[in-house]
UniProtKB/TrEMBL annotation, chain A:
The keyword Transcription belongs to this UniProt entry's keyword annotation: no
GO molecular function, one term: imidazoleglycerol-phosphate synthase activity
One Gene Ontology cellular component annotation held by this UniProt entry: cytoplasm
GO BP term, example: L-histidine biosynthetic process
Gene: hisF
InterPro entries: Aldolase_TIM, His_biosynth, HisF, IGPS_HisA/HisF, RibuloseP-bd_barrel
UniProt subunit comment: Heterodimer of HisH and HisF.
Keywords for this protein: Amino-acid biosynthesis, Cytoplasm, Histidine biosynthesis, Lyase
Pathway given in the UniProt record: Amino-acid biosynthesis; L-histidine biosynthesis; L-histidine from 5-phospho-alpha-D-ribose 1-diphosphate: step 5/9
Cellular localization per UniProt: Cytoplasm
Active site positions, chain numbering: D11, D135
Full protein name: Imidazole glycerol phosphate synthase subunit HisF
Family, as annotated: Belongs to the HisA/HisF family.
Organism of derivation: Halomarina salina
UniProtKB/TrEMBL annotation, chain B:
GO molecular function list: glutaminase activity; imidazoleglycerol-phosphate synthase activity; lyase activity
Subunit structure: Heterodimer of HisH and HisF.
Origin species: Halomarina salina
Protein name (Swiss-Prot/TrEMBL): Imidazole glycerol phosphate synthase subunit HisH
GO cellular component: cytoplasm
Keyword list, A-Z: Amino-acid biosynthesis, Cytoplasm, Glutamine amidotransferase, Histidine biosynthesis, Hydrolase, Lyase
NCBIfam families: IMP_synth_hisH
The keyword Hydrolase is assigned to this record: yes
Top-level taxon of origin: Archaea
Cleavable signal peptide: none
Active-site residues per Swiss-Prot or TrEMBL entry: C79, H185, E187
Domain Glutamine amidotransferase: 7-192
Length: 269, 216
C-alpha cells in the first residue's frame, strides 16, 4: 500500500564563518541555529525519514555554491529522495541543482514570475522532479477566486513571493491547478499564517489545494505534533513536512510514525 | 571479484546516487555516452527519467549495441529504463497505437489505471513473486520508492510486484534472467534499494565468472 510520507525539512544558510548551517524560523523570520545539515540528514536517514527537503535560504552566490556542495554530500550518503529549493529561476538552475545530486527541485517565485519555467523544466527533466511550492497567506477581502469558510469568516489564499514578504494577488488554488496543468509533479503547500506556530497545518488551505489537483500534495508549515500530521492526511495531503519538532527532538520520526500507524494511517516503518 | 558496471549516460539528469549505490555494492562504475565503449562492460545499467518516447529517441545510439550485448551481459533498467526494455508503451502514442521499445523483456507499458492519484509517487510495498538474484535479500513487505505514471501489468516476467490501481511489475526480467529492471528507484529506496543493487552486482560477478545461476 502506498504510504503517507513524513518529510523533515532543513533550512540551510551559511553561518558567520561561511559554513553551511541549519536554521528554523517563526513566520519565516527570527531564525534560530539548529545544526550541521549533512549530520542532520544522516540522522534523519537512519531514523526512517521518507524524504528530505532542503531549502536554501541564503541569497548570495557563495551561499548557493555551498548549498550545492551540501546537496552532493547528502546525496552521497542518504539513499532517499532529496528535494532542493531556494532561488531557482531558470532551466539552468534546475539542471545545476539536479546535477549536484537533488532528485527534485522546489520552485516558488521563479514559477510565479515565469510560469513557462514549469513546462520547460517538466519537459527537460520530467514532471516528477518539478515541485511547485506556494507560500500562502490568508486574505479576508473580495479579491480572491476560491473562498473557504474559516471560523465563520470567508477567506481566500494568496500566493506570496520572497519568503512571504511580497503579495502577488494570485489565488493559491487557481495557481495550483495551473501549475499541475503546466506539468508540476508535486505541490508543496506552505502557509505564512501557520509557519512556526506549532498550532497545526492550515487545514482549509491543504484541503482546498488537494480538492483542486490530482498530483501529490505536501502539507507544510505549523506542525507541532504527530496529531497535526494525521489531520493533514485526513485533509487529503500525501506527505507532511516538519522542521522544528524534529530538529529540537520534540518527536522522533519513529514516534511520529508509530502514532500514525496506530491511528490507521499507512506509513513506512 | 571486481565488476565493471557501466551506466549508460544519454542525458538523463542525476546519476550521482545511482553511481554511489553501485559503488557501495562493490562495483567499479563508469558513466559512458559512447555506444562502442559499453560493449566490453561486465554489466550495464540503463537509467531513464521523463517520457518513454523521448527516452527512446535519446537512447537511440545505444539500441543496436544494447540488443547485441543483452544476449550475454547482465543489464539493469531503472524506472523508464525498465520500460525501454519492454516491447512497447502507450505513452505519447496516438490513440490505439503504441511506441515500440527494445523488446528485450516481453511486456506492454500502459498508464497507471484505477481510482488512484497519478503519478504513483512515494513508498510502496513489494511482493516477491519468484527467485532472482536481485531479490536475494528482499522480502515481501519491504518498501521501495516509486515515481511513475506508466507501468507494465504483472505477468510472466514479474520478479516482484506492487499494487497501485492494480498489480504491476515492480521488478521484471527476461526468461534467462540477465535482462532485469526495476520500476522503482533502487538508488532512492533506502536499504531495500541498496539490497537490489547489491544483488545485481553479485549476479553480474557470478555471470561474468561463468557461474550463471540462471543460464539456460
Amino acid at each position: 500500500m502506498l504510504t503517507k510520507r513524513i518529510i523533515p525539512c532543513i533550512d540551510v544558510d551559511v553561518d558567520d564563518d561561511g559554513d553551511p548551517a541549519v536554521y528554523t524560523g517563526v513566520h519565516f523570520e527570527d531564525l534560530q541555529y539548529t545544526g550541521d545539515p549533512v549530520e542532520l540528514a544522516r540522522e534523519y536517514n537512519a531514523a526512517g525519514a521518507d524524504e528530505f527537503v532542503f531549502l536554501d535560504i541564503t541569497a548570495s552566490a557563495e551561499g548557493r555554491e555551498t548549498m550545492l556542495d551540501v546537496v552532493g554530500q547528502v546525496a552521497d550518503e542518504c539513499f532517499i529522495p532529496l528535494t532542493v529549493g531556494g532561488g531557482i529561476r531558470t532551466r539552468d538552475d534546475i539542471k545545476e541543482t539536479l546535477r549536484a545530486g537533488a532528485d527534485k527541485v522546489s520552485i516558488t517565485t521563479g514559477a510565479l514570475e515565469r510560469p513557462e519555467l514549469i513546462t520547460e523544466g517538466a519537459r527537460a527533466f520530467g514532471n516528477q522532479c518539478i515541485v511547485i511550492s506556494v507560500d500562502s497567506r490568508r486574505r479576508y477581502d473580495e479579491d480572491g477566486e476560491h473562498y473557504v469558510e474559516v471560523d465563520g469568516e470567508s477567506c481566500w489564499f494568496e500566493c506570496t513571493k520572497k519568503g512571504g514578504r511580497e503579495g502577488t494577488g494570485v489565488d493559491v488554488v487557481s495557481w495550483a491547478a495551473e501549475a499541475e496543468e503546466r506539468g508540476a509533479g508535486e505541490l508543496f503547500v506552505n502557509s505564512i499564517d501557520a509557519d512556526g506556530t506549532k498550532d497545526g497545518y492550515d487545514l482549509p488551505l491543504t484541503g482546498a489545494v488537494c480538492d483542486a489537483v490530482s498530483t501529490p500534495v505536501i502539507a507544510s508549515s505549523g506542525a507541532g505534533s504527530p496529531e497535526h500530521m494525521r489531520e493533514a492526511f485526513e485533509a487529503g495531503a500525501d506527505a507532511a513536512l516538519a522542521a522544528s519538532i524534529f530538529h529540537f527532538g520534540e518527536y522522533t520520526i519513529d514516534e511520529t510514525k508509530a502514532y500514525l500507524d496506530e491511528q490507521g494511517v499507512p506509513v513506512r516503518r | 571479484m571486481n565488476v565493471d558496471v557501466t551506466v549508460i549516460d544519454y542525458g538523463v539528469g542525476n546519476l550521482r546516487s545511482l553511481r554511489r549505490g553501485l559503488e557501495r555494492a562493490g562495483a567499479t562504475v563508469t558513466e559512458s555516452s559512447d555506444p562502442d565503449a559499453i560493449r566490453t562492460a561486465d554489466a550495464l545499467v540503463l537509467p531513464g527519467v521523463g517520457a518513454f518516447e523521448e527516452c527512446m529517441r535519446n537512447s537511440r545510439p545505444f539500441h543496436d549495441v544494447l540488443r547485441e550485448v543483452a544476449e550475454d551481459t547482465p543489464v539493469l533498467g531503472i524506472c523508464v529504463g525498465l520500460q525501454l526494455l519492454m516491447t512497447d508503451s502507450t505513452e505519447d502514442a496516438p490513440e490505439g497505437d503504441v511506441v515500440e521499445g527494445l523488446d528485450l523483456v516481453e511486456g506492454h507499458v500502459t498508464r497507471v489505471a484505477g481510482d488512484v492519484k497519478v503519478p504513483h509517487m512515494g513508498w510502496n510495498t513489494l511482493t516477491v513473486e519468484r527467485d532472482h538474484p536481485v531479490v536475494a535479500d528482499v522480502e515481501t513487505g519491504d518498501y521501495a520508492y516509486f515515481v511513475h505514471s506508466y507501468r507494465t501489468d504483472a505477468g510472466e516476467h514479474t520478479v516482484a510486484s506492487c499494487d497501485y490501481g492494480g498489480g504491476f511489475a515492480a521488478i521484471a526480467a527476461n526468461e534467462r534472467g540477465n535482462v532485469v529492471g526495476t520500476q522503482f528507484h533502487p538508488e532512492k529506496s533506502g536499504d531495500t534499494g541498496l539490497a537490489v543493487l547489491d544483488g545485481f552486482v553479485s549476479f553480474a560477478a557470478d555471470w561474468n565468472a561463468g557461474r550463471t545461476p540462471l543460464a539456460d
